[in-house]
């Protein structure tokens, strides 16, 4: 399976992620997407909220696009890096500066930019707090993929390694028809379990999610394997993937 390197030094899912994929549908409806289409990476405890932190290439590849912030855009300053085989690209948004040019060939771990708060960020920068909202939006886009997120897919599985833990946990019973960020988290957990191959976290518990929960329950000997998420399923998934 594809594995990418973290785009910052000392990365930790538990300590570095402020927003997972597929979250906050009400916020992102204004951008015509069903939820957050990447991972937001922040720098807790860092000076200036991490503004100016080096951003690293997550893989070998070629810089194919550099985009500068303009008022009507939301992503801010950004970089698009394509893999050597052309099978996927990674996206780095909200930068304060670029350390590369279009056409550059880069290696995994090379510094390609500096963290910032350009574009749509919260909290909004002010004269007294000019570094508010500093974070990196990291996106992963397999080639030729078509989905509700414009082809973007959850980067969590390609960054996750054994022993990592996510900064959220399942606390609700979930079933067919459920709608919430908890469903998106469940769908990320299912991807980490090797399921949810034909959809990305979208916050809605449909028939595909029912299918995959049931298959996961059968694989992990969680009874009854009916596809609904109750105590036993929550306890298993939280114990394996959650920091809490």
The percentage helix is 10-25%
Number of extended strands? 9
Number of helical segments with 4 or more residues: 6
Content-based structural category? alpha+beta
* Rg computed from alpha carbons, rounded to a whole number of angstroms: 18 Å
CATH structural class of the largest domain: Mainly Beta
The major beta sheet can be summarized as: 9 strands, antiparallel
CATH superfamily of the largest domain: Glucose Permease (Domain IIA)
How much of the sequence lies in strands comes to: 15-25%
User: What is the overall shape?
Assistant: globular
What number of structural domains do the residues give? Answer: 2
Order of helices and strands: HEHEEEEEEEEHHHH
The CATH topology of the largest domain is Glucose Permease (Domain IIA)
CATH architecture of the largest domain: Distorted Sandwich
* Distance, first to last CA: 27 Å
Low-pLDDT stretches: none
Question: Quick check: average pLDDT?
Answer: 96
In short:
By secondary structure, the chain is of the alpha+beta class. It is 20% helix and 20% strand.
């Amino acid at each position: 399976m594809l594995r990418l390197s973290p785009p910052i030094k000392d990365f930790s899912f538990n300590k570095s992620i402020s927003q997972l994929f597929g979250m906050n549908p009400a916020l992102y409806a204004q951008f015509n997407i069903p939820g957050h289409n990447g991972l937001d990476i922040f720098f807790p405890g860092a000076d200036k909220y991490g503004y100016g932190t080096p951003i690293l290439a997550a893989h070998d590849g070629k810089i194919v696009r550099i985009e500068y912030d303009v008022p009507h855009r939301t992503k801010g300053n950004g970089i698009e890096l394509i893999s050597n085989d052309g099978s996927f690209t990674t996206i780095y948004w909200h930068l304060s500066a670029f350390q590369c040019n279009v056409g550059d060939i880069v290696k995994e771990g090379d510094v390609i930019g500096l963290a910032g708060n350009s574009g749509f960020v919260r909290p909004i920068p002010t004269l007294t707090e000019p570094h508010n909202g500093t974070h990196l939006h990291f996106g992963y886009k397999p080639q030729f993929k078509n989905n509700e997120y414009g082809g973007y897919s959850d980067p969590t599985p390609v960054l996750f390694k054994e022993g990592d833990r996510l900064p959220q946990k399942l606390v609700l019973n979930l079933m067919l028809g459920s709608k919430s960020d908890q469903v998106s988290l469940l769908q990320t957990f299912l991807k980490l379990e090797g399921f949810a191959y034909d959809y990305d976290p979208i916050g809605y518990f449909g028939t595909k999610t029912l299918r995959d929960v049931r298959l996961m329950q059968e694989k992990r000997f969680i009874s009854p394997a009916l596809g609904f998420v109750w105590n036993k399923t929550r306890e298993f998934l939280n114990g394996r993937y959650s920091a809490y």
